[in-house]
């Protein structure tokens, strides 16, 4: 559902839909990071091999999510700047 909002907002250059995606994705990334660290630390005392596997697989996934979030956030900043410029151009015409 969030991906649909992102595509719709990006296609129509709607700042609100892209902003909603950014906010929910931040929560997802933080929750994912905490989950990986929690399960990795819990498994550390029981099974070291599994704990290292969880951390070595989980952290790159979280890093990729953060990278893609930064891409969307930079596009959001461009949308915000374009809408501000359009409002300034409209005020000049009045």
Question: Any overview of this molecule?
Answer:
It is a single chain. By secondary structure, the protein is mostly helical. It has a domain at 21-81. It is 94% helix and 0% strand. It has three helices and no strands. The protein has helices at residues 2-11, 15-46, 48-93. Helix 1 (2-11) runs antiparallel to helix 2 (15-46) and helix 2 (15-46) runs antiparallel to helix 3. The termini are far apart. The mean pLDDT is 82.
Topology:
Blueprint: H1 2-11, H2 15-46, H3 48-93
Helix pairs in contact: 1-2, 2-3
* Order of SSEs: HHH
Mean pLDDT: 82
Number of helices: 3
Number of strands: 0
**Major sheet attributes:** none
Report how far apart the termini are. Answer: 40 Å
Rg computed from alpha carbons, rounded to a whole number of angstroms: 19 Å
Shape: rod-shaped
Low-confidence stretches: none
Helix content: over 70%
Main features:
94% helix; 94 residues; mainly alpha
Quick rundown:
The chain is mainly alpha-helical.
